[in-house]
Amino acid sequence: xxxxxxxxxxxxxxxxxxxxxxxxxxxxxxxxxxxxxxxxxxxxxxxxxxxxxxxxxxxxxxxxxxxxxxxxxxxxxxxxxxxxxxxxxxxxxxxxxxxxxxxxxxxxxxxxxxxxxxxxxxxxxxxxxxxxxxxxxxxxxxxxxxxxxxxxxxxxxxxxxxxxxxxxxxxxxxxxxxxxxxxxxxxxxxxxxxxxxxxxxxxxxxxxxxxxxxxxxxxxxxxxxxxxxxxxxxxxxxxxxxxxxxxxxxxxxxxxxxxxxxxxxxxxxxxxxxxxxxxxxxxxxxxxxxxxxxxxxxxxxxxxxxxxxxxxxxxxxxxxxxxxxxxxxxxxxxxxxxxxxxxxxxxxxxxxxxxxxxxxxxxxxxxxxxxxxxxxxxxxxxxxxxxxxxxxxxxxxxxxxxx
Length: 403
What we know:
Blueprint: E1 15-19, E2 23-28, H1 31-40, E3 48-49, H2 52-55, H3 67-76, E4 78-81, H4 84-91, E5 96-97, E6 104-108, H5 131-161, H6 166-196, H7 201-207, H8 210-233, H9 238-280, H10 285-322, H11 331-352, H12 364-371, H13 374-382, E7 386-390, E8 393-397
Antiparallel strand pairs: 1-2, 1-6, 2-4, 3-4, 5-6, 7-8
């Protein structure tokens, strides 16, 4: 989207902000008002549209809401997954908690300079103040976020799959065998949803147990990353690292790809689960949405546990190589380059998951201190924040505790 200033925005334009913990939706009197706000907050470049097709099924929770109102929200609405930085950017708007658990709301006044948006008000024209509407739109926003994340993960998978040789492909396929059946049933359910507008009981029964099977495969892949870290630890000398790291790098790419594929399947299931809940039990949509978010946080914590082992060992190996540049003027740079590429694979996964990490100056101790502190990670994610590093220390970004 263009970041060029729009001088034609009228002073009367208003926008409404709705945050569900991980995502922010902005709707307004016009698309240009919404873009003006997003631009002022530095969010426009990453903003995505939300469609009426994503909203309508969720709005069964609001009986008075019609297709026309859903179209109106979709026509102007843009949403963005919040990072620590963007969560800080919107904090000053004073979003307040609503009657819908986990959902905060505000209405802001005049576009332009970010400071000119700070007047929070109420309006008879507000679209999102009704609890039923808030609940339904939050469900649609969660579904859109799951679908967008799955799309980013599929793009990552394409690049990783291209690097896998025949031997590693055999290892991957052996682990992924059970997942292929799950993916097939997910595609079938998506087809039924597209054609008949719902996932019937017969189709739902085929995928209801999918998360457990996906998680088992994901846990196996995380353990494989720990195994790579253990293998790396066995090679202390620069010459040994130079000889073995290329193969270990391939292993990292392999298991990062498996993890990405598992997250993709979980995202696709979550989107279907929200749709199914809105159909059969709309009053439980909020609880389902919050449960999905918490389940995702648990998956991130499990991943970060394994990544902490791997990144800590990579840091130790890099430090060893750095101390032996004089004795190994060719091998040491190769070791550092291979480690950098391996870290890049992990970083790409975190980027696709919308997680921020400062990858430039970290130690094994810092990884464990921040990533393995379960409550800290949960709170950071729930508040749209992140664990990052400043001056060599772990800092929680985007959390009220940092005010």
